[in-house]
Records
---
Amino acid sequence: MAAGRAFLRAAPSSLAAGAGRFAFACPTALPLTAAAAAATGPHRRGRGRCYCSASDAPPPPPYVLTTPLYYRLLDKRVVFITGTDEHGEKIATSAEACGRNPKDHCDTISNSYKMLWADLDIEYDKFIRTTDRKHEAVVNDFYSRVLDSGDIYRADYEGLYCVSCEEYKDEKELGENKCCPVHLKPCVPRKEDNYFFALSKYQHQLEDLLTKNPNFVRPSHRLNEVQGWVKSGLRDFSISRASVEWGIPVPNDTKQTIYVWFDALLGYISALLDDGEKASLQQAVERGWPASLHLIGKDILRFHAVYWPAMLMSAGISVPDAVFGHGFLTKDGMKMGKSLGNTLEPKDLVNRFGVDAVRYFFLREVEFGNDGDYSEERFINIVNAHLANTIGNLLNRTLGLLKKNCKSTLAFDSIAAADGISLKDNVENLVDKAKDQFENLLLSSACETLMEIGNLGNLYIDEHAPWSCFKQGGESAEKAAKDLVIILETMRIIAIALSPITPSLSLRIYTQLGFTEDQFRTLRWEDTKWGGLKAGQVMMEPKPVFARIETETDEKDQSSSKATKGGKKKARSQGLVEA
C-alpha cells in the first residue's frame, strides 16, 4: 500500500513501513492512514443527505477529505475520497513481472483495495482511478491552464532517479552507494528531454502560505520540515517522461507522458465529478474544492505541501485547507520489510482479531502524526484490557444484574436516575473533551478519554455494589435500580462517541440497550447528551459484545485450572459477572 497516499500504488498485501497506505484511512503503511481512515467514515452517517433550511438558503460547502474522519457525527456533509494511482514506470514494470498488461494489472490491484477497505469496515464516497476517462480529461485541462500561465517549458534534465519514488533525487540526500533514503535502493543516472514546471517561480508565495497559515501543514514538526525545504530554495521539476509509455500523453507532445505525480495529485479534484457527467476541471472544482484535509504519509509530504500548492496556484485554483502527514509503523521495534519476513498483512490481522480490534489498536496506540510500533503482545493486552474488560465486561455485568433483578427493564429515566450524581457531569465533560480531540486529529487521546469514561463506570459500579443493594431490598434496591440505569446510560454514550473508531462494537452495544440498527445509523454527536434511556425501556438478552483474545498462555492456564479444579474452567472476563 502506498504509505499514507490517497492514491495507492502497490498491492495491499503487506504493511511494510513506507510501503503502504489504513487509508482507521486508517487508516497506515496499514495502518496509519488506514487507521485514520477508520476514524470516521466507516458507517456512513448522512451520506447524500440534504441539510438545506426551509428558507432555501444554499447548503454549506462540503467537508472534503481525502481520507476519512469522524465529521459525519457532526452532521457535516462529508466527501471521503480514496482511490488508486495507476500510471508510471513502476506500475508498468510490476505488471510485466506478473505477466499482465498494465490496465489488467491495475484492475486487479484496484479491486483488492476495495475489498480491503470493506474488510476494515471503511466506506468512502468517491473512489477515483487515475485511468478513468474523467480523470484524464481533468489532467488535460489542468495542464493547459498551467501552460497558459507560462509555467511549463522544455529542457534537458540529467540526474539520479529513484524508480520506486518516481522522482529525481539530490545527491546530497542519498545514502551509501547513492541509495534512496526511503527505498534503500541505488538510484540510476538518467538524462531526458522533458517538460518542466516552474516551481521556483512560487518560492515567495509558498513561503507566505506557510507563514500566514501555520496550520496548512500538521503536525508542527512536519511544518518545520516543509519550511526547511522551501527556504533552501525551490528548483523546477520535470513533469513529463520520454521513456515511460504507461501514462497520460502530454497534450502538446504525445511522444511524452505526464509525470505520475503531476497526474495523480489531480485525482483529488477529478474524484469530485459524478460518474457520467461531462468531465472538465472547472466542473470538478465546483463540486466541492478545495479539500478540507489531505491525510498522507510523511514520505510524500514534499509532493503535497510544496509541489501541489504551487501547481494549484499556477492554475488559479485554491489550495487545500490543510495537509496532515502521518508516520510509519515498525514491528517489534524493527523496520518492516519482505526481506526481513516481518510484514503485517491487514487482512490476516482482521481475520485473527476482528476489525474493531485492529482499528482501535492502531488509533489508540500510535499518536497520530508520529511513527508507531506494532507488537502482537501489546496488541492483545491493549485490546483485551480496553474493549473486552473495560467496555465489554462492564456492559455484560450490568445487563446481567438488570435481567436478574429488574427483568431487563429500566425502572427510571436516565436523567432522573442521575440527579445529583457527579458521574453524569464527569461523563459530559469527558465527552466534550473527546469531541475536541477528534476535531484536532488527536485520535489516540480521544480513545484514552473514552476509556476514562469506561473506567469511571467500572469504578462507580464497584463502589456502589448494586448486587448487594438488591439483596437488602426497599430503598437500597431502588437505589441499585437507579445505579444500573446510570451505568447503562454511560455505556450508551460510550457507544456513540466510540463509533468512529469501533463501529461494529458500538452497534452491538447500542442494540443490546434496546435500540434498533436503524436508530444507530441515524445517531449524531449531539446524541451523546445525557438522557437517552427512558423508564420502561427493555434491554436485550445480555451477550458478550467483544470476545477476549485468548493466547497460548491463557490456554495453558485454563488447561491447568481444569486439571486442578475438577474440570471447572477459569472464568473469562467477558462472561456474565455478579460480584
---
Amino acid sequence: MALAFDEFGRPFVIIKEQDQKVRLRGLDAQKANIASGMAVSRILRTSLGPKGMDKMLQSPDGDVTITNDGATILEQMDVDNQIAKLLVELSRSQDYEIGDGTTGVVVLAGALLEQSQKLLERGIHPIRVAEGYETASRIAVEHLEKISQKYDFGVDNIEPLVQTCMTTLSSKIVNRCKRSLAEISVKAVLAVADLERKDVNLDLIKVEGKVGGKLEDTELIYGILVDKEMSHPQMPKQIEDAKIAILTCPFEPPKPKTKHKVDIDTVEKFQTLRKQEQQYFDVMVQKCKDVGATLVICQWGFDDEANHLLMHRNLPAVRWVGGVELELIAIATGGRIVPRFQELTPEKLGKAGLVREKAFGTTKDRMLYVEHCANSRAVTIFIRGGNKMIIEETKRSIHDALCVARNLIRNNSIVYGGGSAEISCSVAVEAAADRYPGVEQYAIRAFADALDSVPMALAENSGLQPIETLSAVKSQQIKENNHYCGIDCNDAGTNDMREQNVFETLIGKQQQIFLATQVVKMILKIDDVISPSEY
C-alpha cells in the first residue's frame, strides 16, 4: 500500500494487487450473501427461548447494554455488510409490527438461507428456490390458522392474557418476576384499550424507571408519574381534589421582540422597574387563583421571585415539565394545555383526586404522582431495580409484554409455543411437498427442514440433545396427532404445551414466517453487488 497525490494535491491510497481483485457475480455472489446472513443469525441463535443466553453490547461511548432481545442486539451492533443490514431491518420490522419474536424471525431466516445454500450447490436455480419458499410459507401460514385456538377473555377474566404475557417474559432477564410484571402489563393495556373497536393506544402507557428498590417493587399507577418535585420546598406535598392549570407560558415579564437597552441611573428608576416586574408576577399568580387552580404545572421555569410569590399565595407549582408529560397529564386529567394566561378559564383546568410528592430511599430524589384522574385512560408503569441496566432491560421486556397483550386484543387467536407450532408446520409442509411435481418440491422440503431449526435451537439452548429431542417430539406429534407437543425447556416433565401454559399470538407467528420468507427471497435474487465507485 502506498500514498500518492493527484494533480490537485489530494492524497489517495494505492493498494497493491488491486488489479487482481475480482468482483463476485452470479452463484459466488449468492453464496457470499447467504454466508453474511447466516453469520448474523448465528449470533442470535443462542439467545432464543427461556434458557437463551444474554449478550453484552458496548457502545463507542462506553455505555454497556445487557439484553437477549433480538431487535436491541441487532440495533446496537455495528453492521457494515449490506446483506446483514437486511436482517437488522427484518428484526426491526417484526418489532414495529408485532413487538415480540424478533430473535425467532432472524433464526428462521438464517435457517432458510442455510437450506438454500445446499439447494444452490445441487444446481437448482435461485428463482425456483424462492418460488418454492413462497409456496411453503403459504402452506405453513394456512396450517397455523387450522391449529390455532380462540382465547376468550374480558375485563373480569384476564388470566389468558396474563399467561400469554408470561410466555413472552419467560425468556427475559426478569423471568423470576414474570407473573407480577405480566399482570401489570395486562392491567395497563386494558386500562387504555377500546374493547369495542379492538384498539389499543400504547402511547397512553408511560413506562418510567428509577434506580433503587427491588424489581418486585414495580407498580402500576392509574395516573401519571412525573420525574419532578414541587418548585419550593415549603409547598404542600399532597393535594387532594386538585384543579390543575397546565401552562406552556413562562412566569416571567414579557420580552420585546426587538433589541433593546434600559438605562437605570437612579434608585427610584430601579424601584419602579422592580415594582413593575412584581406586578406582572402578581397578575399572573392572581389569574391562576381566580380560575380556581390549586396546582400549576408549567413547561418553563420561573425565577425565585415568582416562586416565592406562588408559595406565599399558597399555590403549589411544578416547573420544567416536558411536553410529552404535559400532554399525558392533560389527557389523564381532562384539562387543556394553555399557551397564554389570558386564555386561562375554569373549564380548561384538569382534575385529579390526589397529587402527591414521594421521596425515594435516603437520597433527595422525589417524584410527583398524579392519581385518581378524571380520565383514567392514561397510566404509568413505574419500574424499580438495582441498577440502570436492569431497569432498561425491564423496560424492553415490558414493551414486548404490552405488544403481546395488544395483539391478543386485536386478534384473540393463539398457537402453542415451545417449538410445537414450527414442528407441526414442518410436518404439514413436508407432507404437502409431494403434491408439487416440479423442482419447487425440493425447496418446499428445505423450508420444512428450516422450520425444525427453531425447536432445535430451543433444545440446544436448554442443554438437551437437539437431534434426539426434536426426533422424539416430532414422532410424538405424528403418532398422537397432537399439534401441541413442543420442547420441554423448563424440565416440567411434559411435552404438552397446553399443560405448561406456553403459547404465543397467532399473528406474531404468521408474521415471523411471512417476513423471514420475504427477506430470504430478496437475498436469493441478488446476484451482483455494485458499489458507487464502480459505475
---
Amino acid sequence: MAVKATSADNRTRSTVSLCIVIGMCCFFYILGAWQKSGFGKGDSIALEITKRTDCTILPNLSFDTHHSKQARPSDLVLPVKKFKPCPDRYTDYTPCQDQNRAMKFPRENMNYRERHCPPQKEKLHCLIPPPKGYVAPFPWPKSRDYVPFANCPYKSLTVEKAIQNWVQFEGNVFRFPGGGTQFPQGADKYIDQLASVVPIANGTVRTALDTGCGVASWGAYLLKRNVLAMSFAPRDSHEAQVQFALERGVPAVIGVLGTIKLPYPSRAFDMAHCSRCLIPWGANGGIYMMEVDRVLRPGGYWVLSGPPINWKVNYKGWQRTKKDLEAEQNKIEEIADLLCWEKVKEIGEMAIWRKRLNTESCPSRQDESSVQMCDSTNADDVWYKKMKPCVTPVPDVNDPSEVAGGAIKPFPSRLNAVPPRIANGLIPGVSSQAYQKDNKMWKKHVKAYSSVNKYLLTGRYRNIMDMNAGFGGFAAAIESPKSWVMNVVPTISKMSTLGAIYERGLIGIYHDWCEAFSTYPRTYDLIHASSLFTLYKNKCNMEDILLEMDRVLRPEGAVIMRDDVDVLTKVNRLALGMKWNTRLVDHEDGPMVREKVLYAVKQYWVGGNQTAAAAA
C-alpha cells in the first residue's frame, strides 16, 4: 500500500510541476511582449549594460546564432585561413595604379596614369605590410601640419617644391606650412582672396573639387571654413602627394583627367579648382572643361589660377612666349563661352567663372546647333566611360530664375533636408518619406555603434569610409568637423544615389569593389560596410574585398560591418586570419533579427621580413 501511495504522489507532483512550467512559460512570454512594447524596463536595462561594455579591445566571441542553417560537419571543422604578409616592396602598393603596369599603356592624354587593375590571376592574396616604424597619425587638427616621416618616408617633394612651401622635413616629421605653387605665402591668404568673390562664408559653397591637388593644402585649409573638398592627383613623379594628403587627414584620391570620365555624378560640386594643375584645358576640343561642367552644379564656380591667366604680366616668369600664352587663354575663354560660363572676375593670376543657373539663362545655348550636346540618357553613368567633346544637358526649368535640378539650401541646413533629386522624383522608387525614414534608421544604428565602440564620435577616427553609402545616412549621422566620410556608391547598386549624397553637402565616389580602391595603403581610420557582401554575392570573391579593406585600413583602425548572420559568419572566419580582432553583436532590435553587426580592430604590426612570400 505504501508503494501505491508513493506512485500516486509522484503522479500528482509531476502534474503540478508541469502546470508550474507551463505557467512560467506563459508568464515570461507575456512579460517579454510587454517589455517589447516599450512599457517595460528590460530594454533600458539591457541598453545600459551594453553602454557600460568597454570595447577598447574587441575580444573574440562565440558566433552561435539564432538563424544559422543547420551546420554540416565540414562547417564545424573548417580551419581559419592565415594570410601571410606580402614582401616589403609592396608597402605602398596601389594595385590599379601600379607604376610597372602603367608603363605598358599609351602616354597620350594621360591614359597610362588612369586606372589599370590587375587581372584575377595577378591579384595579391597577402597582407600589405606597414613600413617599419609606422605610428598612428597625429590627431586633427595637428595632422594638417605634421606627418610622421616613418609613415611616408619620401623626401623628394621637400626638394622639388622647396621654394613653393609645400612641405619641409624637420627631425622625424614632415611639416606642411600650407603653401602651394600658386600660394607660396600660404593657403589661408589665397582662400581669403578667393572668398572675396565666391560665397564661401555663408554655406552656399560646401563641396569642392580640386584637380591636380598636390598635397591638398587648398582642401586642408578650406575645412576650417566648413567646405569639404574632394582632391585628386595622379600617382606620378611627385611621389606620395595623395598619400601625404590623406596622412594629413584631408580627403583625396588617386586620379587624373585623362580619357575616362571622373567617378562623380553630374551637378555635384559647388566649386571646382585648378591651381597650376598642368591640365591642358584648351586641348582636345575643350573636353576637360566640358567634364568639369558636367560635375559642376548650376550656379557653381570654376577657379583657375596660374598660366595662362594674366599672361601679359607673368610670361617671363613662366618661361613661355606671349603668343603661346595668349593663344591658350583665348582658347579657354572660347570654351567657357561655349559652356555659357560667366566670367565673374580676374584677380592677379586667378580667374573665376560661374556656371549659369539653367539653359534658359544662357542666350547662346538657345541655338543648339552651335553646341554639341551629349546624347546620354544618364549623365551619372560614368564608370570607365570615355569622355566625349560634348556638353551634358541639365534638367529643364519653367522660369529663367529657377535652378536646373532644384535649389539647394546652404550648409548645414542641406544635410538633413530632402535632396532635390529625391524631391523631384529623379531617383525612381524613392520618396521623401522613404528618405526621412532612412535618416532616422541610421541615427538609431549609429547610437548602437557608439555604445559598442566608444571612440566612434570622439574624433579618433578622422578618415572614414562607407563602402556602401546608400543616401549617406551613416555619414550624416556622424557628421562633425572632427572627421569626414568618403561615401562610396558601388557601381552595381540598384540606385544611383551619389548625386543625392552631394546635395546633402557630403562627398563620395563611384567604385566597383571587385577592384582595388584608388588610394594608398593605410589611409582610412574606420571602414563601414552595410550589406556590402550580400550586394557582391556571386559577383567577386569575399576574400578579395576583405584584403582590400585590410590594405586601406590603418593598423589599429576599426571596421563596422552589418549584414546577414550567415554572411558575417563567413566574413569573420576570414577576418581572424588577417590579424583582426572581431566581435559579433546582435541587431539593436534584438537577437531574432537576421541582420547582425561585426566589429573588428586591425592589430598593429609592421613589415621587416624581406623574404615573406606573396600568395598568388
---
Amino acid sequence: MVFCLIVLVVHAVSFFFSYFFFSPGLSSKGISVVLKKMPAACDSVLEDIEDIVSAQDPKPHDRQFVRKNVFPKVRKRSSQQNTQTDDDPPSDSIIPGVQKIWIRTWGCSHNNSDGEYMAGQLAAYGYKITDNSAEADLWLLNSCTVKNPAEDHFRNSIKKAQEGNKKVVLAGCVPQAQPRQDYLKGLSIIGVQQIDRVVEVVEETIKGHSVRLLGQKKDNGKRLGGARLDLPKIRKNPLIEIISINTGCLNACTYCKTKHARGDLASYPIEELVDRAKQSFQEGVCEIWLTSEDTGAYGRDIGTDLPTLLWKLVEAIPEGAMLRLGMTNPPYILEHLEEMAKILNHPRVYAFLHIPVQSASDSVLMDMKREYCVADFKRVVDFLKEKVPGIMIATDIICGFPGETDEDFQETMKLVEQYRFPSLFINQFYPRPGTPAAKMHQVPAAVKKQRTKDLSQLFHSYNPYDHKVGERQRVLVTEESFDSNYYVAHNPFYEQVLVPKDPVLMGKMVEVNIYEAGKHFMKGQPVSDARVYTASITRPLAKGEVSGLTEIFRQTKEDSLEQHPTYHSSFNRAVDALDITDRNIPCAVHSQDYSTSLLPSLGKNR
C-alpha cells in the first residue's frame, strides 16, 4: 500500500508541473480547479498493478529492446555440471514407461517380496526390467538396515549409480528409518508401505524430479499391513511365492533398526492371504514362503492368530506343493505349541521352524529386551522335537552384544553344543545408529571377532546329515544351484538336497535315494519307479513374466493408454488431487539379514 501511495504522489507531481508549465493561459484559478479534480490516493483501490502504469512509462516492446543490450554476467560452473545440464533433455520431452530399470535388493525374504512387487508394477506399465546394471536408465535400490555391512553396500551402490549418471530411486528399510541422512539428500525415496506407488516415483524421477513417499497406510485410522497383495509382481523364482502375512512387530529389541522402518504390528486379513495363495498356485507356483518380521505375532492386532491362518492356507495347498513358515520369536509360539505341532506334521507343510535365540544368557537377553528367557526357548525346541519327529530348527546368535561377558558367551556355546542346530545364523554385533544398544558399553571389536570365530568353528565341527545317507526321501525341486551343476530340492524338513540337472524334475516332487552328505546339503538320485507329483494347477510363468494382473489393474492400464498412448502419467493426477505444487516433498515423514549366515542357500534364486 505504501508503494502505491508513493507512485500516486510521483504521478500527481508530474501531472501538476506538466500542466502548469506547458498549458497556455493557465491561471491560479485554473490551478486550483486542476488540484480539486485530482483524485485522492484513498479514493479508490487498485485492482491490478497495470492500473498505475502511465502513458509515459516504457512499453513492453521498449523494455525488451533495452534488454537485448544488457550482457549478463555468467557464473562459472564445473565442467561436469555443465555437461550434465547440456545432456539432460527438458523433463517435458522425456517419455516415461519405456526406460530400462535395474533392481537390486538386500536383506530378508520380506524385502525380496517387496522387490518382486515393485518389479511387477513397473513391468506392467511398460518399463523393461534388466539384469544389466550398465544398460539401465534407472537403478532401484531396495535396502536392508539390519547390519552395517548391508547399509554400506547400499551406500556404495548409490555412489556408483551417481558416478554413472544413473537416475536413482531408493526403497527398503534404510531410507524409511532415516530419510534425512546426508547421502540420501536430493534422491527419490519410496517407503516400505508405499510400494504400490513405485510407478509414480520412478516416472517423476526419470523426469528429473525428486519424490519422497514415506507415509503409513491406514483405514479409518487403523494402520494396515501395507500395499495390496493382489498387485502385479515378477517372482525371482516363478515356482516360489513369498507372501508377507504382516509387517512390523510387537517387540522393542534394543539392537533392532528394522523396527524404526517397519513399525508396529499390522496384519493382513486371512481372506486376502488365502486368495493370494490360491492365485499363486493358479500361476504355477509349487512352494509358498510365509514371511514377516515375526510370523508368530500374526493376527494379534486383528483378533486372530497364526494357527487359524495356517489351517486355512493348508486347505488351499494342492497335492505336490509345500508351505514354509518364516521366522517366529519364542514368546508368541509358546502360546500355540500344540496347534503348531499338528500343523508342522501336515504332509504339505515343511517340518521346519526358524526361532532366533540370539543368546543363551538371560542377562544378555534382558539387555536386548527379547521378552523371554533361555528356558522358554528350550521349552519350544524340546516340545517340537518331541511332537514333530525330524523337525529342523534354525536359530540366530549375536556375538559380542554390549555387556556380554565371557561367561555369557560360554552359555551360548553350550546351547549350540547341546542342540547341534543344522541351520545356524551367526552374526557379529554391529551397533546401529539410533538404537539403544548403540549407546551401551561396547565389547571390544577384537573380542567380538574372536567369539564369532569360535562359534563358527563349533558349528563346523559336526555334520548334521551324515546319518541320513542311504535314506529314501521325498523332495520338491524348485531351483538351480549356483554352480549350475545341480538342481536344488528340499525334503519334508526343508533340508537341501542336490539332484541331477534334469529339466523334467523342475517343479516336481520326486523320491530320491540319498548317497552323499555335506555340511549344508545332501545329494540324491531319483528313484526310477517312484511316482512323480506335479503340484502346478497350470504351467508356471516364464522367468520375468508378470503375475497378478487382475482385471481391475488391466482396465486401469487400458484406460490410461487410451488417454495417452505413450505412457501412464498417474503421478500428475495424484499431485493434482493432493493440491501439491512442490514435487520435491516428503509426503510423510524384525527381520534378519542372512547374507553372512553359515547355512548358505545353494540356489540361484534366493
